[in-house]
Amino acid sequence: MIVTRFAPSPTGYLHLGNARTAIFSYLFARHNGGRFILRIEDTDLERSTKEYEKMLLEDLVWLGLEWDEFYRQSERFDIYRKYAEKLVEMGHAYPCFCSSEELSMERDLAEKKGIPYRYSGKCRVLSADEVKKLKGSGKPYTIRFKVPYSEYVVFEDLIKGHISINTDDFGDFVIIRSDGTPTYNFVVVVDDALMGVTHVIRGEDHVPNTPKQILIYKALGFDVPKFAHLPVILGEDRSKLSKRHGAVSVKNYREEGYLPQALFNYLCLLGWSPPKEGREIYTKDELIELFDLKDVNTSPAVFSKEKLRWMNGIYIRQILDLEELLEKVIPFLSEAGYDVSNRDYLKKVLERTRDSFETLKDAVERLRPFFTDDFELSAEAWSELENVKVYNILSSFLEKIKDRELNSQSVKDIAREIQKELSVKAKDVWHSLRIALTGELQGVGVDIICDLLPKEKVEMRIRKMLQKIA
Ligand code: GLU
């Protein structure tokens, strides 16, 4: 049975890169009929918060990443303590009494010499008596893992291939801090082993940690899982995707009106593509069907917000059914203060306008003419006003619709009549109407507005405009 896990630390909002890691782990488990575990890595009690944990869970649920098992590391300290003691008993770990001052001096020295820092190993050679005495004196201590000298730790990464790291590059590392809390490299092994994780899928920033973890697996007699380290995600300037590139958290995109299906689809294609497919839009079920780690690119992927936006637009225009789109857009419209109580009206509006916006937030702007009669004229619209005979056009329009039904066909006919009678350009007629009805020069087609808006509202807005410019 294939078992994967996603192991976020609740020290910030879910980042797009981590969301992609979660998606790949999820898809790999589902593709193979395996289990997907969510594990909250909150051993750093100072930086982890419940609020971030809550947000993480919300984002994962929103993305549709349902998990089969859930764990929280802060609830498992007893287990970690037991395994740390075991390592000490077996001679694979030892207490280290070096003070932080001593250690930072060692570190400074290494830096001056320009060599990578490695713990000196001073406490590795303490006798049992010395340890007893120091413990008795109440001196605080950490537990360090004893790393064999000058050995190569080798593993076959499922994405990066053969990796070999010399143990002299890192030296003895801390597994239990002096306050008794365990460190990441240690707990991750205990958990992955006890939870039966077969495939560790995570960001490539964890490659240097992997040999440390492999040594612990071996010391504790656990099976070593397979590793798949995902290449980083870059911004368009080819530097690592970070806050400098703007919105990078899932929360941001959720709030900006991106759809979970679109973000899921997009992130999935960020560094992975199914062979022989050549298309870009996939349902979650198709992705589960197609996903394989062997098709993950070895080189970093570049995140393009434009492309994500485009894909979101496709989901809005073509993929979501109208009911679903309605459900998704309602919170955004009501947040903007629109009256969304008439679902039928809203549905009609959406049906005719869904191809004019790419995010749910943009829908707020686009749909404004259908929900508010009060709007300011944009500066651009005012400048247009000086050039055309808006007044004549609008009065003529008002006159002409008096005894006629108003719909997308009649508005086109009327526009043509006005054009002829007043010798004005088609553009002048449409701009005048658009400005009167929406306050803007761009947006949803005037014909659609005339089709959907009650005639009294159209008349009222035109009259209001005439008063303004009289
Ligand atoms: N908590 C670690 C992180 O957020 C997990 C790394 C791992 O998957 O082993 O980077």
Architecture overview:
The protein has 21 helices and twelve strands. The chain has a three-stranded parallel sheet with strand order 1-2-3, covered by helices on one side. 49% of the residues lie in helices and 11% in strands. Helix 6 crosses helix 7. With 470 residues, the chain is mostly helical. Among the domains are: 3-69 and 185-233, Rossmann fold; 78-176, Glutamyl-tRNA Synthetase, domain 3; 373-470, Arc Repressor Mutant, subunit A (Orthogonal Bundle). The structure holds glutamic acid. Glutamic acid (GLU) is lined by residues 7-9, 41, 188, 202, 206.
Please outline the helices and strands.
Blueprint lengths: L2 E4 L9 H16 L3 E6 L9 H14 L5 E4 L4 H13 L3 E4 L3 H14 L14 H9 L5 E4 L6 E6 L3 E6 L6 E4 L7 H11 L4 E5 L6 H11 L5 E5 L2 E2 L15 H6 L4 H9 L15 H7 L10 E2 L2 H15 L2 H14 L7 H11 L6 H7 L1 H4 L7 H7 L4 H12 L6 H15 L3 H13 L7 H7 L2 H15 L1
Helix pairs in contact: 1-10, 6-7, 9-11, 12-13, 12-14, 17-18, 17-19, 17-21, 18-19, 18-20, 19-21
